[in-house]
Amino acid sequence: HIGAALRPIVGGPSILSMNGKEWKVWRSRFNPGFSERSLTDHVPFIVDRVQVFCDKLREKAGREIFSLDDFATRLTFEVVMKVSLSVRLLTLIIRSKFFISKGNIAS
User: Fold this and answer.
1) N or C: which terminal CB in the chain sees fewer CB atoms within 10 Å?
2) Helices 68-85 and 43-60: crossing angle, nearest 10°?
3) What are the b/e assignments for 6-33, b being 16+ CB within 10 Å?
4) What's the predicted TM-score (pTM) here?
5) Taking Cα atoms as reference points, which of 12, 23, 22, 34 lies closest to residue 85?
């Protein structure tokens, strides 16, 4: 069962590890954010976040070794949270205590 295998990776229950009724409940909560209209409405936000992402890469390029994964994870997290839950985060700009404490993202 893939859900059980994913739980340790994702840190517990998540939409990736759920099945059946539980999965349907959570999937239905995310569906509206990924409709064509919703995605179209979010294009300006997505473009803005990608621009910040590119700016961060330009700042680091040629100066030091850095983790592209850190910046890509922040970008993905910001866009998914805004599109799916209408929560605006600025993890590309502001150091997130959540990410720092989890050791997932360093600035």
Assistant:
1) N
2) 170
3) beeeeeeeeeebbeeeeeeeeeeeeeeb
4) 0.60
5) 34
The total number of residues shown for the chain amounts to 107
| CA angle, residues 35, 38, 44, in degrees to nearest 5 | 140
Per-residue pLDDT reduced to its tens digit, 8-62? 766 777 777 777 898 888 888 877 777 888 889 989 989 998 998 999 899 888 8
Of 38, 56, 44, nearest to 92 (Cα)? 56
Q: b/e for 70-94, b at 16 or more Cβ within 10 A?
A: bbeebbebbbeebbbeeeebebbee
Q: What is d(CA 55, CA 87) in angstroms, rounded to the nearest whole number?
A: 22
